[in-house]
Give the backbone structure.
Amino acid sequence: MARQNYIFTSESVSEGHPDKLCDRISDAVLDAFLTEEPQARVACETFATTNRVVIGGEVGLSDQSKLKDYMGRVEGIARACIKDIGYEQEKFHHATCKITNLLHEQSAHIAQGVDASASKDEGAGDQGIMFGYATTETAELMPAPIQYAHAILRRLAEVRKSGEEPTLRPDAKSQISLRYEGGKPVEVTSIVLSTQHAHESQTSDDIRAIVEPYIREVMPSGLITEKTEWWVNPTGTFVIGGPDGDAGLTGRKIIVDTYGGAAPHGGGAFSGKDPTKVDRSAAYVARYLAKNVVASGMAERCTIQLSYAIGVAKPLSIYAETHGTGEVDPEAIERAIGQVIDLTPRGIREHLGLNRPIYERTAAYGHFGRAPEADGGFSWERLDLVDALKAAV
């Protein structure tokens, strides 16, 4: 039996965090290539530091001679991301930072295992294990600590960008510790919020006075109590931030991107990778499956693991775990999954509509726990597999 009484903590980071800025640029570049060619193969990595951004990786197009033409757009894409995030610092400014583009043609040895064809036998882009998770803790069927940590930073970004809070700056981190009783979140024991700000004269108390109303606004009623500890900018001044304060890299915030440590992670990052990479697409479909299992009433918590081998189409294994909360045998769930959805890389992409420019929006505030969008964004958050799963168990 899983523990019922405990304290669990998750953190989030803002869109202006150096690593998230890099994720954003990588996914924006990916979207640009998918707009031009839905079957494009992209593995884009970004590095950012003081006054510099370096973009590298591989791109595969049906006509590789077009790659040079597309490359000229990459610098503009990066600058647009930096501008939208809000960096206009002396040592990191969207208009003046140096951008180096080192993207190049995809390796033919990698492409041979995954090249698109009319067959369903198109292989996975790499080996690996991927996990999906869902829980009844929140309406979004996400673990509460990470969902609330995201919500705080998203709200602070909104008021910063709107001009409502002009002294907030882009780089920020949040952390929520929740006390559970009977397996349910009942109280926030501590809130940690560190945000970049405009003036060295602003104290921790000044920043708390700015951010506290917005934190209380997004947190569910009753979770913050008189006992809740507040740690706002606990080290004091935080004026130098972003890549000028700390270097950033694509793919370094994989726990922030997923379940805040409440569920396993296979180890692969998402941003900058096209959906032939099962690091991304299989993690998305695993979340989709876990969410639909929980929404169907089969369990209050569900973890799904999938595994793949490079060049092999079908998953090597499907594993389901309901953590003692299940109304259905996990083996029956595993069998049902295999019946209701094609889990080949092509099958996943077609079922979820992943060959579209829908990835830049995922780069901050979590890839999961978001609302499905009309253009296919966050399609893995749909609940349209419930009836099929019920019928198959």
Observations:
- The mean pLDDT is 94.
- The CA atoms of residues 25 and 78 lie 5 Å apart.
